[in-house]
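Ticket closed. Logging final result for SDR family oxidoreductase.
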Amino acid sequence: MYQDLEGKVVVITGASTGLGKAMAERFGQEKCKVVINYYSSKDNVQEIIDSIEKSGGEASAIQGDVTKEEDIKRLIDHAVSTYGSLDVMINNAGIENEVPSEKLSLDDWNKVINTNLTGQFLGCREAIDYMVEHDIKGAIINMSSVHEVIPWPHFVHYAASKGGVKLMTETLALEFAPRGIRVNSIAPGAIDTPINAEKFKDPDKKKGVLELIPIGYIGKPEEIAACAAWLASKEASYVTGLTLFADGGMTQYPGFQAGRG
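Final structure:
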């Protein structure tokens, strides 16, 4: 736990499930004031709010589409009007779908780029604008992926979006370091989330994924949430422009493990 996080206002996009849910609950354990953004279904939102409040934090939820400027502005306004400030912005909302690149429609390309890259840019822009105006030395955390460095056939739109997140994060980190605003990203590997559940049900597919992970197991959402808490805390006060890979070694060329190659 990081005592300096207590009472901080944290906004998390795509926080009703998966990694977003785990991060919301972790910041609840840190006794933060958490704004949960969800896109459509709010089925488990109250459950997350209850969990955060039980941990000693505060929470509220707001619907919004991260690809729409007005929704992102409304999200920031909600955080400020409800809790009085904004200290941490986590741009987590993202989508993916598998399509052979030669069959990829412009519509599918735009949907992924608009959510994963443009949506994160809008979240960064609005949060940084508020922080600059109010002289807040805040933290921005973007959600990238191992596929910002690992090519991924049939997911060219996804890989392109995450490559964009990498340089967007680094550029914003450089631009706003003099204002005390830190901008970092987390790049998860294979994590046991609902988006991956169907794949991991297949024993052969799961075995194939495990062969790519030197540490030998599929990651848990709570392990990504722990990275986010550290990056938001004063323990990471000298860290900006970083992509923190939380991937069990997936980006370390696992094919060469045990001296192969």
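The CA atoms of residues 56 and 212 lie 39 Å apart. No further action required.
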